Amino acid sequence: MKMRKILSLVFASALLFNVACSNDDDMIQPSKGTYENGIFIVNEGGFSTPTSEVSFISYDLGTLDNKIYARNNSNEILGNVLQTIGFNGDNAYLVSNVPNKIDIVNRYSFKKQATVTANLNSPRYIAFSGNQYYVTNNNFFDVMKLNVYNNNNSFVKSINFDRSAEKVVEAGGNIIVQTDGITYETTPPYNELPTGYTITIVKPSTNTVDKTVTLPSNGIIRDLISYNGSAYVLASSNTNSYIYKINPSTGTFTTATITGIPQVQKLRADGNKFYFSDNGNKIYSMNIDSTLPSAPIVTTPGNLYGFNVIDSRIYASDASFTADSKVNVYSANNGSLLKSFTTGIGTSGFYKN
């Protein structure tokens, strides 16, 4: 074969390869579903009425869709109190405190896949590890336990605690449970009291308690989050607030004292920063393991009930339990208002999908 023909064939093959690669690179991945890219919003409900629901706001804040559970499930009523949403694979787990159930939906279509009711009694929060998931149950009286389920939704066991079973997270391969929190005086004026100061580490390989961490007796434990492989616990008093970083393997911890900012209620982490809110609707930020804040980013109006920070945006609800709630979205950089919209009854949480 002549050299000219050989070169022509080589050139043609190279051109075809480049076009094929370019076409592969330019292919648009198909959408997984209506709710692929945005924020789920929990509308807790009015407790005495079956008004709990879920809203969805697109990531660009341009499209709001309320009552997506009923709309995608033949107008089925979700319940009275929707406590939280957890995610595992393609599913979202909707934990309802009233009634005692977990509705599992496809996170992209919001079509219901299953409902779990076994051994639930006032379920609160949910975490995932391997082929199992963990649900706290807490009626603040005589039920304080962690339920373990397989991913096929079969019940495995319960682990009982003495005083509380509230937030639960996965961190560093272990399950971390908030086993102390808040109670109240039994006579007027019913002041807040701590139940104690413990955090419990559960080993998923055995589903048994591995360690009990006793934190300093400062204020009341308010919140528990997981971030970058560590667990962080928020406590606060009438004078200061405290963030404890817990090593989930050893149970050792370090303390950051937020001096002069009392009654911090909620803790979040985003972009290597902490964000927290106090009982005066002030939202602060600080670099993790760095300088304490001197002034709030923003002070939100009304009843600050739901709060999260997602990709440098602060989502805050002005919650009503008798009418629709209002949500304000702020820049986490400077506190400027980006968007306001109306959601449902008792808006309490924001979750990135």
UniProtKB/TrEMBL annotation:
<feature type="signal peptide">
    <location>
        <begin position="1"/>
        <end position="22"/>
    </location>
</feature>
<dbReference type="Pfam" id="PF16819">
    <property type="entry name" value="DUF5074"/>
</dbReference>
<protein>
    <recommendedName>
        <fullName>DUF5050 domain-containing protein</fullName>
    </recommendedName>
</protein>
<dbReference type="InterPro" id="IPR031815">
    <property type="entry name" value="DUF5074"/>
</dbReference>
<keyword id="KW-0732">Signal</keyword>
<dbReference type="InterPro" id="IPR015943">
    <property type="entry name" value="WD40/YVTN_repeat-like_dom_sf"/>
</dbReference>
